[in-house]
Specification:
The structure holds 2 protein chains of 2 kinds. By secondary structure, chain A is of the alpha/beta class. Chain A has 10 helices and 10 strands. In chain A, the strands form 2 sheets. A 6-stranded mixed β-sheet of chain A has the order 6-7-8-3-9-10, sandwiched between helices. In chain A, strands 2-1-4-5 form a 4-stranded antiparallel β-sheet, covered by helices on one side. By secondary structure, chain B is an all-alpha fold. Chain B has one domain: MetI-like (MetI-like fold). Chain B is 73% helix and 1% strand. Chain B contains 12 helices and 2 strands, in the order ααββαααααααααα. A two-stranded antiparallel sheet of chain B has the order 1-2. In chain B, a hairpin with a 4-residue loop joins β1 and β2. The chains are: A alpha/beta, B mainly alpha.
């Protein structure tokens, strides 16, 4: 496998005494889209949120094993979580723009990084909105509230906001699950385009979506990584019976 | 079997009437109160009454020093109570673990503080601020010369701040809780620190709650008398308070004095009504401002 970006070794995660992830070892390549699929509660979102240490916010979570990004153990005690999250951005299931203008939403990340120069900010905001394929729709209303945008536009704005921090990895937690088919198509197109510059890990419930946009697919079930491989292979000729049952809709 | 049960119907009818009557009595009480105060006070409610000092042994003249004193009181009180209360609320909602010993202790203390009778705050202010802090300040800085170890507007305001602190804490806490977890996560996921998230996302979103808490505290503080009886309110002063160590006149206490301590209670009746009307208008308008602010901030969500 060329250019490894993220890999985990024997990773376990517990919520209190309940095990949510059981011995996960996976290697995610750079500049690819990796889809995490599996039924609800299988641990795929939990796994995703471990990659930028969002689970740190939950007191009862305990993690064992190692997660490496660029061969650096992100759970090492010397790691600055804030810097990690700048490098590993996240787009959430429900679009969550701030109650600020479109411009200020995108400028939020650069601003907290100390960029206050108006010209520089304008440049970053424009570039990020263009990369998130929403520039043409909002360029005349940058100073209107982001809350006035449609759901699909809000989600692309959230992607632009993430891009503005200049991450290397983008984690997406079912980014299109609340959107209509047209908006979903736009987001999918965007994801495929984004992988040229970013490594993308996406959780999805939508199997067709995983098949359409991902290069590799990981199937999670009951906290275990059942199978991981090329998307084409997972969807046409999986090694494990559980994978096949899930993909063909026999359960899930 | 299908005949009407008159006894049962009558019971239902009587009960419904009872509920309606008690609801109407509440309205009636409010209306009577307002009408009496407005009729009694409206002849006094003029520019002169609002802007002049009492004259003729407080049987004539205006109530300007009481209005001024009330305003200064609530301003100093807010300067003390709002930041303190907001910071406490931030600790409780953002930093403390939900069921930790310390969070439960603080919440218990806030609830207890809220139900302590206001006269006890007055006694506390007297004992703590005046007899302890003030007297110590005098002996340390002024060689025992009496300046801070007696009632004044600073101690009265701080005592009032303690009384209104629970109101501020609870309303700010409520406001902070309305900020969805998704927004905090969005900020953190962009590499913001916890403090940046609080300052740039949580607090701006809670401004209406902080404002509401402040105004509720102010309107409570403007009406309370007991906490300032021993800590700074004066019967009559010929001058306005010029420094924090001066005593002051205040509307609520003025009403009490006029109606019980005056040389001629009947003669001061219009002043009593007038002062009551002013106090009522003050607290009413504060509440209206609170409502308008809330409404405007809710509409204008762009920060």
């Amino acid at each position: 496998m060329k250019n490894l970006k993220i890999h985990t070794e024997n990773m376990y995660l517990h919520y209190g005494s309940k095990m949510a992830l059981n011995n996960i070892s996976i290697s995610i390549p750079e500049n690819k889209v990796t889809a995490l699929i599996g039924p609800s509660g299988c641990g795929k979102s939990t796994f995703l949120r471990s990659l930028n240490r969002m689970n740190d916010l939950i007191d009862s979570v305990k993690i064992e094993g190692n997660i490496f990004i660029d061969n650096i153990n992100i759970y090492d005690k010397n790691i600055d979580v804030v810097n990690l999250r700048k490098k590993v951005g996240m787009v959430f299931q429900k679009s969550n723009p701030f109650a600020k203008s479109i411009f200020e939403n995108v400028a939020y990340g650069p601003r907290i990084n100390g960029i206050n120069n108006k010209t520089e900010l304008t440049e970053i905001v424009e570039k990020s909105l263009q990369n998130a394929a929403i520039w043409d729709e909002v360029k005349d209303r940058l100073y209107d509230s982001a809350l006035g945008l449609s759901g699909g536009q809000q989600q692309r704005l959230c992607i632009a906001r993430t891009l503005a921090v200049n991450p290397e990895v983008i984690l997406m937690d079912e980014p299109a699950s609340a959107l209509d088919p047209l908006s979903t198509a736009k987001i999918e197109e965007l994801i495929v385009h984004l992988k040229e510059e970013y490594t993308i890990v996406i959780v999805t419930h939508n199997m067709q979506q995983a098949a359409r946009i991902s290069d590799d697919t990981a199937f999670f079930y009951l906290g275990e990584l059942i199978e991981f491989g090329k998307t084409k292979k997972i969807f046409t000729n999986p090694d494990k019976k559980q994978t096949e049952d899930y993909i063909t809709g026999r359960f899930g | 079997m299908m005949l009407k049960n008159f006894k049962r119907d009558a019971k239902g009818f009587i009960f419904e009437g009872l509920t309606l009557a008690s609801a109407l009595i509440i309205i009636a009480i409010l209306v009577v109160m307002l009408v009496v105060i407005i009729i009694g006070g409206k002849s006094m409610f003029n520019w002169e009454f609002l802007t002049t000092f009492p004259t003729d042994g407080m049987t004539k003249g205006g109530i300007f020093p009481a209005i001024y004193g009330t305003a200064i009181l609530v301003i100093i009180m807010s300067i003390a109570a709002v930041p303190f209360g907001t910071i406490t609320a931030i600790y409780l909602t953002e930093y403390a673990k939900e069921n930790s010993f310390i969070a439960r202790s603080i919440r218990f203390a806030v609830r207890t503080l809220a139900v302590i009778p206001s006269i006890i705050f007055g006694l506390f202010g007297l004992g703590f601020f005046i007899k302890f802090v003030g007297t110590e300040m005098d002996s340390v800085f002024l060689g025992g010369q009496l300046k801070w170890g007696q009632p004044n507007i600073l101690w009265a305001s701080l005592t009032m701040a303690l009384l209104t602190l629970p109101v501020v804490i609870v309303s700010v806490e409520e406001a902070l809780k309305t900020i969805p977890r998704e927004l905090r996560e969005a900020s953190l996921a962009l590499g913001a620190t916890k403090w940046q998230t609080i300052r740039k996302v949580v607090l701006p979103g809670s401004m209406s709650g902080i404002m509401t808490g402040t105004i509720l505290a102010v309107s409570r503080g403007a009406g309370e008398v007991a906490p300032i009886l021993f800590t700074g309110a004066a019967y009559y002063l010929a001058t306005l308070p010029g420094s924090l160590s001066d005593q002051f006149m205040v509307l609520g206490y003025h009403i009490y004095i006029m109606s019980t301590q005056s040389a001629n209670v009947d003669q001061t009746l219009p002043i009593q009504f007038g002062t009551t009307l002013v106090l009522l208008i003050l607290t009413f308008s504060l509440n209206i401002v609170a409502i308008i602010l809330r409404y405007r901030i809710r509409r204008r969500r762009i920060v």
